[in-house]
Write a structure and sequence with these properties.
Length: about 300
């Protein structure tokens, strides 16, 4: 059988930390690829030297050549630019679309049977671009956002109530960004909805902090953006796929009529297993939740239209 192979495209903070998270969980061998010469090689060697201490055997290879990624089971894409001061979302959209378009060509060439997990922002639009450019079925092109947003929501619930994060469960739908839709009714502590445990004011505050989760960290860091929680979010998705867990996680998937939406990538609860995205879970939404969800979808579709795919 041999170990599974995961390629991480982009060896910056998110990519390298994702590689470490995969090795830390003992999930697969990792290929870390980047256009900067020496950087992925150096980070890979450093991680390789940590494996005796981590306690998992794994080969971590750094490369500037996609040939080394051949036959990957999963390809995680973190490459692209982060938004810089003065850059509009549209500037970022067009620049990253160009980068991701090139990456997808290489992925299709060397790992035609792989499952793609998109991390590059703007997430939903980049996942849609990967789906269109790769020609892969929707089961094999996913976006990582909901797992991260839900983890942030869970963190804030635990902090607010002074309980273990293990007792918290949270759901976030919609696009990844200002229009995301956290669902307090479906978010629980030891099975009890948080709507029973907190005031509306508390919930609204936490929901807003979840929406601003990425921006809050960007503002604190001054340069760069979050990478620990995003990396572990990707690793959670990879574990669900490689271990065929049938785990239900919120991910960006291509909707084909579910939730009344067609031909857009939107965050919804999805079952992840060996086939990738095996099933979309449809949950009942209240009128307010549905309106927020539809607004989020509209925003994603507007951005997709700009790419003229």
């Amino acid at each position: 059988m041999g170990r599974k192979k995961v390629t991480v495209v982009g060896a910056g903070h998110v990519g390298a930390t994702t590689a470490l998270a995969i090795v830390n969980k003992g999930l697969a061998d990792v290929v870390l690829t980047d256009i900067i010469e020496g950087m992925p090689q150096g980070k890979a060697l450093d991680m390789m030297e940590a494996t005796p201490l981590i306690g998992h055997d794994a080969h971590i290879t750094g490369t500037n050549n996609y040939v080394d990624t051949q036959g990957s089971d999963i390809v995680v894409i973190t490459a692209g630019l982060a938004r810089k001061p003065g850059m509009s979302r549209d500037d970022l959209l067009f620049k990253n679309a160009e980068i991701i378009g090139g990456v997808i060509g290489e992925v299709v060439k060397y790992s035609p049977d792989s499952i793609i997990i998109m991390v590059t922002n703007p997430l939903d639009i980049m996942a849609y671009l990967a789906y269109k450019k790769s020609g892969f079925p929707r089961q094999r092109v996913l976006g990582m956002a909901g797992v991260l947003d839900s983890a942030r929501f869970r963190t804030f619930i635990a902090m607010e109530l002074g309980v273990s994060v293990d007792n918290t469960h949270a759901f976030v739908l919609g696009g990844h960004g200002d229009s995301m839709v956290p669902l307090p009714r479906y978010s629980t502590v030891a099975g009890v909805p948080i709507t029973e445990l907190m005031s509306e004011e508390q919930i609204n505050r936490i929901v807003q902090r979840t929406r601003d989760g990425g921006a809050e960290i960007v503002n604190l860091l001054g340069t760069g953006s979050a990478y620990f929680a995003p990396a572990w979010s990707v690793a959670r998705m990879i574990a669900a796929i490689l271990m065929d867990k049938k785990e239900i996680l919120p991910c960006a998937v291509h909707l084909e009529g579910e939730y009344g939406v067609s031909d857009a990538y939107v965050g919804v609860p999805a079952q992840l297993g060996a086939g990738g995205m095996e099933k979309v879970f449809e949950i009942d939404l209240s009128d307010d939740e549905r309106k927020a969800f539809e607004d989020s979808v509209a925003e994603v579709k507007d951005s997709i239209a700009k790419l003229e795919l």
